[in-house]
Structure formats: C-alpha cells, structure tokens
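__Protein archive entry__

___
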Amino acid sequence: MPAQFKFQAVSDDGATHEGVIVAVSAEHVEEYLSHQNLLPISISEVQDRRPYSLFGLFGGNKYEDLITFTNQLATLYRAGIPLLRALTLIKIGKETGRFNYVIYQLKVGVESGRQLSEIMADYPDLFSRVYIAGVAAGEESGKLDQTLDELAIMLEREMEIARQLKSATRYPMVVVSILVAAAAVMMIYVIPRFIDFYSSFTAQLPLPTRILIGISNFATNYWSLILGLIAAGVFGFRKLVADPQGRRWFDRRLVQLPVFGDLIIKANVARFTLMFRILFRAGLPIIKSIDLLISAIKNTAISAELILLQDLFRKGQDISGSLDKFKYLPEMALQLISIGVESGSLDRTLEEVGNHYSKEVMYRSRQMTSIIEPILTVVLGLFVLVLALAMFLPMWNLIKVFKG
C-alpha cells in the first residue's frame, strides 16, 4: 500500500533537498533519489491525514498538478509521441516533488509492460478510481487522448466549483474565528481588570456588566473544563463520521440544512454527471460507471440514492416512474437522465445536467455569501455594542457616585 515518505538528500554540489513523496516503500524512494543523482540522508514515513470533506470533492488532491499532468500527457500522446517518451518529458513543479516521483514510477511500470491505468491504481491519493477507470477505458478504445482531454476539463470545472465553495465559506469562518478570539481575550484578560477596578466602589453594576463578569469568572475558573468539552466535541465528531451509521446520520442532517444542504447536493450532482459522461463516452457500461461513482461521492446520503439509481438501471425499470423513492437527488436531473437513456442521447444529456448544476453551484455560493455577509456584520455590531455597554455603563454609575 503506498504511503507518504519525507526525505532529506544532498546533490553532487552539496545542496540539500527536502520533500514528501508517495511510494510503496522506503527502498523505492531511495531508488528514485538515486535516479535523480541525489544521496539520501534520511527517509521516514509520515502519517497521511485526510480531512472529512463536506462537499465530497477531491479533498487534499492538488488540482493544478493533476490538470497539468493530464493536459501535457494528452498533448504529447495526440502528437504521436509514444507513451514511454511522453512520461519522460513531463515534469511537474520541483524535480524532487512527489508528483514527479509518481511520473517516474509510471514510466518504470510502462517499461515493464504494465498498463498505465494499472500503475495509476498504485497511487490512489493522486488518481481517483473514476480517473483510473477513464484512462483504462481510453486505453482499451484507443481514444486515450480524447479521454485525457475530457478528464482535464472535468478537473478544471471541479477545481472551480471547489474554489467557489471555499470562497463562500471562508468569510464567515474568518469572522466567527475573530469573534471567538476577541471574546476569549476580553473574558480572560480585559474583564478581570475591570472587575478589580469596579470592586473598590460600592455602586451597583448594570445588568450587562454583571452578566459579562459572570461569564468571565466562569471562563477563568473553568477554562480546563471548556477546553475539555471542546476536545471531547472534536473527538466525538471524528468518531461519529468514522462509524458507518453515524456517518449516514450526519450526512443526512447535512443535506437537510437550509441553503447549505442544497449547495452540497448540487455540487455532488454536478460532479456525478460530469464524471458519468466521461466514463460513458469512454465505453464503460452504465452499471459499471455508476458503481465507480458511488465510491467517488463521499456524502453517504447521496451515494445511497446512486445505489438506488444503479438498481433501477440493472432491473431495466423506468426512472421517471420511481421519482418518489428519491429524497435528495433533484427531480430534474433524474428526469433528464431518464430521457437521455430512452432517446439514446445520454452523453449530451449528462453534459447539459452537469453544466446546469455547475452554474447553479456558482450562483448559489455567491448568493449565500451575499446573504451571510450582512448577517455577520449585524452580529459583529451587536457583539461590539454589548461589550461597549457592559464596560462603559458602570462609568456613568461611578460618576453619579462621585457627584453624590
């Protein structure tokens, strides 16, 4: 099973090189470094930690590297350059980068007589099952260059969707983080000093100030309990999504959220139809294509409905007559897929559905940002107002005390 290895090496001129690459073993890393005229100093395996993906997109994969590799390979292959020579010419980023190591292993594998798709399967962190299946179908049909072109287009669209979704969620996350940090600083460092100052006077403190002081006392006296609860919450969430039943429960609740759930569904539908089209055009049967896509969609609530869709195709049943069985997949998408199958134009239909929902994701994410921004502005304003009242109202009381 491939793993990540961190290495340090020196070149002939004494320069030090560091990096992380994916390999089957440390011996393979050493062999690759030797091929690059580098002398290994240290090679150690590192833990591959991949975060839970809300939208079911590529997660930690580097879109840019994979798109560049796919485009370069398609261009060279279409120009008539043999696959082995093409893999020798392609370079992605730094010479000692992990992607270049994988390209080197692809070349070694092709030299030994293995299929390109077969070697790619050894590196699932870079090449998804859908990507590998598309390459395998392209090799079998003799249309590898066309398949690679379509895979590159699909990856570019998916990268655009992922960036739009990140952009939509980045602003509220930043604002919430700033609010939490500001509140923590106020409660732990600022408010206790005000308490010491006001405690020397006998004046009655206003209600907002007393509430703030109570929260501050709780935070300073029970900070270990608060940190423990946060750690327990993070640990509980990770255990929840690691358990199949817990993951299904969480994913169902996720897609039922207002606005946000609709965005997740449409992002996954766009991804599904675009990849489905590539596999179908490459010559894979419908049942096999959906089977591969079920594992590619990370949201279990949506993947469960893809299993139902696959079952309908397997039994030869009409999708439009079973729409009531689907809770999350949009009716329009299912209707168009059904029409495409019946009319023999599934290729074109999948492209239209994919393009439509890709645009919907872009529009919805921008709309969500425009809705969230004024709400967060109001919340931030209220937060500042409450703090100002809690800290400055006692000063008016003290003025009255002094006057009295």
Q: What stands out?
A: The chain is about 70% helix and 5% strand. The first strand starts at residue 3 and ends at 10.
